[in-house]
Amino acid sequence: MSVTLEDVAARAGVSRSLASLVMRNDSRVSARRREAVLKAAAELGYRPNAHAAQLASRRTMTVGVVLVELRNPVYTEIFTGVQEQAEQAGYGVLLTGGELLTADTERRAVDGLLEHRVDGIVLVGPRLTSKDLRELADRVPLVIVGRHVQGIDSVAVDTRHGTRLAVEHLVGLGHEDIAHIDGGKGPGAESHRRAYLDTMEQHGLSAYSRIVRGDYTEHGGRRAAEILLSSSHPPTAVFAANDLSALGVLAALKHRGMSAPQDMSLIGFDNTVLAQFGYIDLTTIDTPRHDMGTTAVTILTARIEDTGRPTHPAQLTPRLIVRSTTVTHPGV
Question: What's the whole-model pTM score?
Answer without folding.
Answer: 0.78
